[in-house]
Amino acid sequence: MQTTEQTVTLGKDGLVVPAIGIGTWSWGDSLFWSYGKDYGAEQVREAFHAAVESGITFFDTAEIYGLGESERLIGQFLKQTDQPIQIATKYFPLPWRINAQAISDTLTASLQRLQVDRVALYQVHWPLDFLISQRTLMNALADEVEKGRIGAIGVSNYSAEQMRQAHQFLAARNIPLAVNQVRYSLLTRQIETNGVMDAARELDVAILAYSPLAQGLLTGKYTPDSAPTLRGARRIDPRFSQNGLEKIAPLVNALQSIATIHQRTPAQVALNWLIAQGNVMPIPGAKNADQAVQNAGAIGWSLPPEEVAQLDQLTRN
Prior knowledge:
- The chain is α/β, with parallel strands linked by helices.
- It is built from 10 helices and 10 strands.
- It has helices at 41-53, 69-78, 100-114, 134-147, 160-171, 196-203, 242-262, 266-276, 289-296, 305-315; strands at 7-10, 15-18, 22-23, 58-60, 86-91, 119-124, 150-156, 177-183, 206-210, 280-282.
């Protein structure tokens, strides 16, 4: 599949990456996903290579995804390609790892699983300030940037105020805060009203949008008339109930209509809408090669302003 060159910059004078990445929570995780049942290592390996061949070379993982299995799988896949790949992973401040040495040791373990000496982006998975202070955390990460083991520093699930604190501590070390990874989609737009988006734009911090298809709700696959059998976390998500699906039907219908005009899919339209917001990089998941190729179809083209506005109006509330 051919895509035209389309990139974003993560943070001020930061990493230049494709306008879309792949989130790999589902790679190796059987607690929230059906890894090992509906799909396995071979399918996600094919997803990795299909993504790279389609121009997607940024993969976001975390040490807790599959308890390290996601990182291990990616480490194997990296050995199978000559393409330059950018990897982002995350540190989770669990109760017994709450000092600078523990952060360094955690990074070392991630690098070993990934079989690399350096990651492009290292993020704090959750802002557990009561376990470890922002100052200690950011200084420990800044040390790793200076050692060359981290290309850029990011946070995840941070509020606007927590972002500002992290940015301030890093600025004292002359290091920018590159990203805040948060839930963001046409159905989850809270960052536009709680100050996170405004702070990100003010501080030159990019938004990495996880769950950009709202667990598949924006693909058109789930409708009130024909919803596939629910698995994993979807079984307890009220948005997948009959009532929930009826509520979003007007949006799904609009996505399908716009998709038909552009010869795209509803999912590609929903992802393109996120890219149109500026300083936003969606990182949808991909359990197989087909999903990876579908994700890549979200770049190389742009929704016209009137369609961006139409979708904005439909989901504003």
